[in-house]
Amino acid sequence: MNCRTIMDKMYDALGERPLSVLFRLQLGIHRLFCRRCAEEVKNLETIQRIMKTYFSAEPPDIEDRIMERIYKENIDFADMDSEYATGVSFRSWVITGCIILFSLSTVFFGFDFIKIASSNGSSFLLPVGLTIGCIVTGYGAVFIGSHLKELSQWLRLHE
Q: How far lies 58's CA from each of 11, 17, 55, in Å?
């Protein structure tokens, strides 16, 4: 028998039932002559011993435990003030957003920017434009996501 056949039989028989006497004899003879298969079988036996020692046969039903803990908690998120829930007030977000937008739009008027842009041409403007667009889009998405309730009340979209 070759290595592939021996190892395929070994993997097939691993979890189902104990190995037959004939197969154990074939495996023992093959392990005497093939160092790679001997190391593989040794590693498999070590893994089996560790799994039997430290892990139970059935995986724990962690999903039910998590759901039980969620149901036990009596947190009413509707009563929480949105300013304290997000950690930063609506006004602070708007002021910070205006500062970011102003600073990103004035980048184009700096002396260093003009020198670099004139020497590199439009190949420099593309990454700058993409960076500014990503920053503004990311900030806007986080702002809207964290203050959706306030925005919907302010725009009278909330019933």
A: 20, 17, 8
pLDDT tens per residue across span 52-84:
777 766 666 777 777 787 777 766 555 555 545
Cα–Cα distance, 4 to 10 (Å, whole number): 10
CA diameter of the chain: 84
- CA 122/CA 158 separation, integer angstroms: 45
CA-based torsion, 75, 142, 150, 87: positive or negative: positive
Q: Is 144 helix (H, G, I), strand (E, B) or coil?
A: helix
Q: What is the pTM of this model?
A: 0.39
